[in-house]
Amino acid sequence: MCGIFAYKGQKTNAAQLVVNGLKKLEYRGYDSWGIAFKTGHKVSIYKEIGKIGEFDISTLKEKVDGPINGHMAMGHSRWATHGGVTQENAHPHYSQDKTIAVVHNGIIENFEELKTELKEKGYKFRSETDTEVISHLIQKYKSLGPVDAVKKALSRLRGRYAVLVLCAEDDRLIAARRGSPLIVGKGENEFFIASDIPAFLEYTRKVMYLDDNQMVVINNDAEFFDLETNKKIDKRIVKIDWSPESAEKGEFPHFMIKEITEQKETIARAINQDEKQFMKIANEIKNAYGTYLVGCGTAGKVCLTGSYLFAKIAKRHVNVTFGSEFPSLQDFITDRSLVIAVSQSGETADTLEAIEVAKGKKAKVLSIINVEGSSMDRISDYAINIKAGPEKAVASTKATTAQLAILTLLAYALDNRLEEGKILLVNTASQINDMLNPRYEDHILNLAKKIKDVESMYVIGKGVNYPIALEAAIKLQEVSYIHAEGFAGGELKHGPIALINDGVPCVVIVANDETKQETISNAIEVKSRGGYIIGIAPENNNIFDYWIKVPEVGEASPIVNIIPIQILAYQLAILRKNNPDMPRNLAKSVTVK
Ligand code: F6R
Question: How remote is the C-alpha of 376 from its chain's centroid?
């Protein structure tokens, strides 16, 4: 949520590098954007509302007063929290005297009281944001020198932040974090700072992670400090194995369809885990006294699917909840509990809070993440990397199925049948490879054309595919903006069936398992009320008005069942002229609560 990018180095086109970096981070927030760049003893700011899109840096010269070339710049792509989407509220934010510029990701909880204090001292606010208090506070403590002024200002803040500061009178780039991600990339005589690694992958794969309550001051080198003890920290450089191409669209029109297609390879990659370590983690689950699966949104639906998989395959009960709900359940957590956090980004604030709560109770934490070095990866006792590669479309697809594959494999490992699980998933991966072809996508496109103008649609599933119905509804909502809801098939008759009338599309997920007959009966109930039945199943059935075939993969059915719905959601988005990569009101990686 909100993308930050900064450059300091020998190149003189820092502003251009930052604009390019922001374009790569736009999936984190896209309602407005802005840059600050340093030329001589001046910090200039330029900002706009809307997407950065194709912004051409050569037009910047006409838009700002003075030179634009320099060695240091920073920028921000915003997802609004405090204050509407206006140019004034876009970042960066100047101090009163315009000698300091600040970009910020996170929420400053005590900004109202700080604002009142600063206003009383005569500071004039230009925006409605919480961020502006930071730039004014730094100005207030200016006499301490830039680094100490930033430290002092940060010590006054409550809440979460990733903050970057440029000062007119100083040649250092200053950054700090508490609760929101910030990563330093080290190139040849140059440094990058970004909220996410893909933004600087084309320049360097060497990274240094900033931890909470740490600051980095970049001059010719990067110096790290602990904000609490004021001590210097030696940072390890980590080499990232993502390739720059993996974070680009390549020949695909959108990241979403690229990432859907990548599922041909990602399942096989996900299950390629160190077996000894995997079994050790499975044993932790076995020995835990109470296990919670925790995630948000799509990852939350994956967690719910995991609870069915653990019950079915390993006869093991696990609790499930959303990250945001976990604190309300904390009274049951003890030092013998295990929390399994599922997150693509490893940075979702609600899930991170759940982990903090669990750790506060001395419970163990296992994170299932996609971004190596993310906060969850680093603060957990154990971590499993799902290895899906950078996921940039806001709507999660390949990370979802890779997470499902890992939970399926864990369930088998728990039941001491790791090899059997592997064979199943290798077979599933190969079936997905066969399934994802242009003919299959065209078949789904025909359906999308038929239903593209509907107001509402419903998805039903049962057993392990009930959470998949919920996830299907999220995918459809996110990118097609059609009102979509998922239900457990058996629940229809308890209320939702009142919503069905003539022609309403109802996607029915029919797995070849013990739920098959009942799910078909639910479909018949819908059809009797005029519903248009779209069957997702290995076999056709008379009840289906439209059939989308999926391979028969036994216990791995959730993985194959969600894929046609991802494709349908994508195609509906295109037909309805929505941007599937950047759906309205959403952002990838929700780092605010
Ligand atoms: C929906 C989607 C979101 C995320 C959720 C958690 O397609 O992507 O619902 O699943 O915001 O994000 P992560 O997995 O990064 O914790």
Answer: 12
Per DSSP, helices labelled H in 187-296 are: 255-261, 263-270, 275-287
Superfamily of domain covering 250-435: Glucose-6-phosphate isomerase like protein; domain 1 (3.40.50.10490)
**CA separation for the pair 214, 233 (Å, rounded):** 9
Same fold, 250-435 and 437-581: yes
Distance of CA 16 from the midpoint of ligand 1 (Å):
31
211, pLDDT greater than 90 = yes
Residues 550-559 have pLDDT tens digits of 999 999 999 9
Phi then psi dihedrals of residue 512, to 5 deg: -85, 60
Pair 192, 203: CB distance under 8 Å: yes
Q: Domain residue spans in the chain? A: 3-246, 250-435, 437-581
- Which pLDDT band, with edges at 50, 70 and 90, does 245 fall under? confident
Active site (annotated) includes residue 2? yes
Residue 303 designated active-site? no
Which of 342, 348, 397 is the best mutation target for the ligand 1 pocket, counting ligand atoms within 8 Å of the beta carbon and taking the most?
348
CB burial of 215-247 (b: ≥16 within 10 Å; e: otherwise) equals bbbbeeebebbebeeeeeeebeeeebebeeebb
Cα(411) to centroid of ligand 1, in Å?
A: 22
Enumerate residues lining ligand 1, CB below 6 A. 296-299, 343-345, 348, 351, 395-396, 474, 478, 589-590
3-246 CATH, one of 3.40.50.720, 3.60.20.10, 2.40.37.10, 2.40.128.270? 3.60.20.10
> Of all protein residues, whose CA lies closest to atom 5 belonging to ligand 1?
297
By mean pLDDT, which of 59-63, 227-231, 335-339, 421-425 is the weakest? Answer: 59-63
DSSP symbols for 572-588:
HHHHTT--TTS-TT--S
167-197 pLDDT tens trace: 999 999 999 999 889 999 999 999 999 999 9
- 480-500 as b/e: b if 16+ CB within 10 A: bebebbbbbbbebeeebbebb
Cβ atoms within 10 Å of 250's Cβ, excluding its own? 8
Catalytic annotation, pick one of 2, 296, 303, 506: 2
Instruction: Give distance in angstroms: CA of 292 to centre of ligand 1.
Output: 18
Share of the chain above pLDDT 70, in %: 100
The larger pLDDT score, comparing residue 374 to residue 427, is at 427
Q: How many CB atoms lie within 10 A of CB 529?
A: 15
**Atom number, ligand 1, closest to the C-alpha of residue 351:** 16
For ligand 1, atom 6, name the residue with the nearest CA. Answer: 296
Specify the pTM: 0.91
- Superfamily designation of domain 437-581: Glucose-6-phosphate isomerase like protein; domain 1 (3.40.50.10490)
Residue with token string 């604030």:
349
Q: Ligand 1 atom 7: the closest Cα is on which residue? A: 395
140, 186, 387, 588: which is the annotated catalytic residue? 588
